[in-house]
């Protein structure tokens, strides 16, 4: 599901980005502005990725239980084997 969301975001960026770059070129007269704006958005996305660890177990809306609250304690009789 996460991969699908990534593809959705990329698709929106590919759909909206070129017309926005063309509009910036038309307003400013040169292409440099489009590259600067694209670079700014890369920096913003990097900053947002840095915020992710601080949002763990944080609910923005709704009242469903968090994953850590709904999981409960594991059964001591069950052995979990993790293959590498």
Automatic annotation (TrEMBL):
Principal subcellular localization: membrane
User: Major facilitator superfamily (MFS) profile domain spans which residues?
Assistant: 1-84
What domain of life? Eukaryota
For this UniProt record, give its keywords in alphabetical order, as a comma-separated list.
Membrane, Transmembrane, Transmembrane helix
Q: Which residues cross the membrane?
A: 33-54
Q: How does it sit in the membrane?
A: Multi-pass membrane protein
Q: What is this protein called?
A: Major facilitator superfamily (MFS) profile domain-containing protein
Naturally occurring in which organism (per UniProt): Papilio xuthus (Asian swallowtail butterfly)
């Amino acid at each position: 599901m996460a991969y699908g969301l990534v593809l959705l975001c990329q698709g929106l960026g590919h759909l909206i980005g070129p017309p926005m770059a063309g509009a910036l070129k038309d307003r400013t007269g040169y292409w440099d502005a489009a590259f600067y704006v694209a670079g700014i958005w890369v920096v913003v996305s990097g900053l947002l990725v840095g915020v992710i660890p601080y949002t763990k177990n944080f609910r923005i809306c709704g009242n469903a239980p968090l994953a850590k609250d709904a999981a409960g304690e594991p059964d001591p009789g069950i052995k979990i084997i993790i293959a590498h």
